[in-house]
Amino acid sequence: MATPKQQQMLEQQQSPMQRVKNSGVMMMMSESPVNDEKEEEMAESALALFRAKEEEIERKKMEVRDRVQAYMGRVEEATRRLADIREELDDLVDPMRKDVAILRKRIDTINREMKPLGQTCQKKEKEYKEALEAFNDKNKEKAQLVSKLMELVSESEKLRMKKLEELSKNIETLH
After folding, report:
1. Which residues does 2 contact at the CB level (< 8 Å), separation at least 6?
2. Which UniProt keywords are present, listed alphabetically (predicted)?
């Protein structure tokens, strides 16, 4: 005889029409003496029906799982193809991107190297201007001194010439 739990599961799986028929059979069985063989056959039949339903559910579950796996495989393949397309698109946008990046890096390096050189250049330029100004000042001073020297030499020559002329006159007067 089926346990109450098995009967309940059997009733849930049967169609409404079968439930009505079985309830009548069950009532008749409970009212009349029950034949063990019939009861055993019904239990086996119910169990077989239950197993068949379980197998069908399991089979459908496997079919759905297989379809999901197949779909996931297609999705993964599509994802790979999209990644390849995206990579090609990125390369297409700037085919010389690596070369440009290398040149930019070199330009940045040179800019960093130029900064202290520019500062040194400005410092040297300032020193040059100061040295040039000092040179020009000394040159002016030299020109003034040379001019004064020329004046003195010229005056000195005049004085000496005058003195020589006087001496020469003195000698002539002596003669």
Report:
1. 10, 39, 42, 43, 46
2. Coiled coil, Cytoplasm, Golgi apparatus
Q: Which residue has the tokens 């439930």?
A: 19
Q: How far apart are CA 119 and CA 142, in angstroms?
A: 34
Q: Kindly state the tokens that stand for 16.
A: 């409404």
Helix axis angle for 36-93 and 4-13, nearest 10°, is 60
In a domain, 84, yes or no: yes
CA 48 to chain centre: 63
- Cβ–Cβ under 8 Å, residues 29 and 39: yes
69-96: pLDDT as tens digits: 999 999 999 999 999 998 888 777 666 7
**Residue 175: inside a domain, yes or no?**
no
Residue 117 CA to residue 111 CA, distance in Å, equals 10
